[in-house]
């Protein structure tokens, strides 16, 4: 008799769309029982160090990145999140605000905002404009997700990756140009891989980086948890969690 391997996937539940992520992961597992027969995958909400310590993987949801960082600092979860992103055995996915929180540098940051430094990138907050400028668009992710050629993405006050940094580049502090740099000194030695560039979204000839991967850490500008499609969540489980 095969004993199912226990795996705990946590969703940071300080603020934002954490319930949607939890529901999507549960739907993936329910729809693919035979696929995951050798695993016992537990999905939990994470608000405390004790809950974080249970996790093999963590998802940081969309929401408000500055509020997320303030709550993490106020509840003393922030140093444990630094430890988690620095742990080479853990995998992480940040969506929208989660991408901002995972970055090494934040452009247009709010004063005293913090970031975890897990991804060697600089991101720009609210790069597409205000809430009224939010949009949906079907994108072709089949280059890295097999068969995912028409995925309905949702961009809500979304960030973009404005710069790929050298491993560990950046320093502490808040600059006069409102670029916050992570206090995390851990160096992720994997290269940053650009997974997707958004082309001509506003009719202009531009290429905006909206999905990146650096080893075990994934970041997306958009909200897969708000689309009517769980393929991105299944890919994260298959590619990063198991």
UniProtKB/TrEMBL annotation:
One of its GO terms (cellular component) is cytosol. The keyword Coiled coil does not apply. L-glutamine binds at residues 63-65, 125, 156-157. One of its GO terms (molecular function) is pyridoxal 5'-phosphate synthase (glutamine hydrolysing) activity. Pathway: Cofactor biosynthesis; pyridoxal 5'-phosphate biosynthesis. Keywords: Glutamine amidotransferase, Hydrolase, Lyase. Coiled coil: none annotated. SUPFAM superfamilies: Class I glutamine amidotransferase-like. InterPro entries: Class_I_gatase-like (IPR029062), PdxT/SNO (IPR002161), PdxT/SNO_CS (IPR021196). Pfam families: SNO. It catalyses: aldehydo-D-ribose 5-phosphate + D-glyceraldehyde 3-phosphate + L-glutamine = pyridoxal 5'-phosphate + L-glutamate + phosphate + 3 H2O + H(+); L-glutamine + H2O = L-glutamate + NH4(+). One of its GO terms (biological process) is pyridoxine metabolic process. Its EC number is 3.5.1.2, 4.3.3.6. The active site is at residues 96, 223, 225. Belongs to the glutaminase PdxT/SNO family. Catalyzes the hydrolysis of glutamine to glutamate and ammonia as part of the biosynthesis of pyridoxal 5'-phosphate. The resulting ammonia molecule is channeled to the active site of a SNZ isoform. This is Pyridoxal 5'-phosphate synthase glutaminase subunit. It comes from Candida theae.
